[in-house]
């Protein structure tokens, strides 16, 4: 019975190329022999994951597998051979597997020599005679059905690589992660994005793609943002609200001394222009202060007597 490559990698048949690649890397890291010494089962699973990825990552092989249930000759008129035996079709060995994921584990001492890159030689693809296409004829009770698809041996290019590079195996690129410094413009907001030209994926005989960066704001406990404005709640005492005071208010520009006028009411808004966030369209925003009057939850007898005396005053 043909192996279920999708089940081996733990992905659905509708999985994207990126999902298949991520799942393979996860499996390879889990079952890598260097991480599972003296564990024959781990090496078997490691090989199975590599075999599944070799088929599902190749558009031609994946197409054949989905249609015929096999990509190595079992029921497939393309032929192939043992995936690990280096047969006529798509064979590879353990050194190939270790090299293909070398960047994931930093190379590994036992396979470091396999990371030396070597140029690739091209030759005409024999199975498709250089046409880049395969024609499969199937006899049915209703007559012959001819299916034309891209050649899986040369990926539709019409040429095969005679001496494949031990690092990229003829693909021309390898998977590698890179950390880059990003200069964030002033005033960016949640959901905005910027691009960095040339920092995307590379392609053979082409130009690199772009890196797109999407900004996600984290919630700040003290501030709230509304566009270019910074909103902050400031509590003051009843006494300060009555007689006035100077209070220190935090802002992204440092602490700011704000004058509370005598007779300030609860909910009053004080706006300080130019102390908000620079908006990419409207310029610098404002610091908006919401005044909240703090009412004591309990008072002692002496304080109560003072308040009772004030209560009888005319302006109270």
Short description:
The chain has about 325 residues and is an alpha+beta fold.
Q: Spans with pLDDT under 50 lasting ≥5 residues?
A: 73-93, 102-120
Strand proportion = 15-25%
Q: What is the global morphology?
A: elongated
Count of extended strands: 12
Largest sheet: 4 strands, mixed
Instruction: Work out the radius of gyration.
Output: 34 Å
Series of secondary-structure elements, N-terminal to C-terminal: HHHHHHEEEEEEEEHEEEEH
Distance from first to last alpha carbon: 92 Å
Number of helices: 8
Average pLDDT, rounded to a whole number, is 78
Main-sheet strand order equals 7-8-12-11
Structural class: alpha+beta
What is the share of helical residues?
10-25%
